[in-house]
Amino acid sequence: MKKLLVLMALTWVAGGASAADVVKGDLLIRTLQVGETSMVLLKQPAGVSGRSTVSCLPDPESAQQMLSQERTGGLLLMPGSKVTVKNDTSRSFNDGSQVKSAFIRFECKAAPKVTPKAPVKTPPKPPVKKKAA
Amino acid sequence: MKNLLTVLLVPSLLSLAACHSSEGRKAKDQVAGAQRNQEQAKQEQVPLPAGKEEEKPRETVVQTLRSGQSMRVRFLNPDGSGESSLVHCLSVDNHERVLSDPQMGGFLLAPGTRILVKNDTSNVPRDETTLKGDNIQFDCQER
Predict the structure, then answer these.
(1) Looking at residue A5, what is its pLDDT?
(2) Is the pLDDT of residue A26 over 80?
(3) What ranges do the domains of chain B cover?
(4) How far is A114 from chain B, CA to nearest CA, in Å?
(5) Is B127 helix (H, G, I), strand (E, B) or coil?
(6) Is residue B18 scored above 50 in pLDDT?
(7) Do A64 and B102 touch (CB under 8 A)?
(8) Does B112 sit within 8 Å of A81, measured CB to CB?
């Protein structure tokens, strides 16, 4: 249940631009962390305009749990996955933003393993000397 | 499900036991065991509350694509709209060559990629996917 709650709170990455974007020639590489979702305007076969979302999920079980909920869908990527689309430059998002590159590659990055930090040792406080009355 | 299996298995076990009379004791043990199971099954059968059906788990169909293979798919977006697309498994990072064809589009998967979509089973044209699962998982593997 706790896992599900985490999934329900997916973070939206801006459709037009993101801090995690890297441009290489005519390819924009957008790295999504686990729990992040991005909108995409793409070209489907036969030049048809498409619109969807791309999300990065931690594992297939979580993806299945998420898809069992209402108002979920789009493309769910597992960590290590790379998906490339042809950008639909003829359209822009609702906020007027647009991705300029010809192609967009979404990469789903696994969450870094959290290693428990060693407890910080604080030196013992020196005993407070009582002032003589 | 376990109860159902037990109920279905009991008559066949009984008939099997009757056929193999040479294994008398073993068969008797089986019959006795089966009868005990049947009694247990009866005890465990709890009627569902009126109006509440047993929740059906969502089925995920796994589709493995080798490099160079494509598959048409119709999936649902979060707003409930259906998206008709193509999933293609790349051999190497040759997206530019594959997408240079103006008729080409959809999602190009790099080898080692695994994606899941919610299958849109409503109004699927016959020339498109015939996959019946609730979800479809695509695995792109190198040849």
Answers:
(1) 46
(2) yes
(3) 2-44, 60-141
(4) 24
(5) coil
(6) no
(7) no
(8) yes
Average predicted confidence (pLDDT) for chain A? 85
Q: What residues in B contact A44, CB-CB < 8 Å?
A: 83-86, 105-106
Give me the residue label for tokens 């790349």: B90
Tell me the C-alpha distance between A101 and A24, whole Å.
9
Query: Which pLDDT tens digit goes with each residue over B1-14?
Result: 445 444 443 443 33
Higher pLDDT, A125 or B73: B73
Facing B114 at nearest CB: one of A27, A45, A78? A78
What's the total number of domains in chain A? Answer: 1
Dist. CA B54–CA B67, nearest whole Å? 41
| Structural domain range at position A36 | 2-107
CB contact under 8 A, B105 and A85: yes
Contacts of A75 in chain B (CB under 8 A): 75, 107, 115, 117
User: Which value does ipTM take for this structure?
Assistant: 0.79
Q: Please list the residues that pair with B72 across neighbouring strands.
A: B86
* B70 closest CA partner among B102, B115, B97, B107: B107
List pLDDT tens digits, range B80-113: 999 999 999 998 767 777 888 888 999 999 999 9
Nearest CA to A102 out of B96, B110, B93 is that of B96
B37 to chain A nearest CA, in Å? 34
Q: Is A58 within a domain?
A: yes
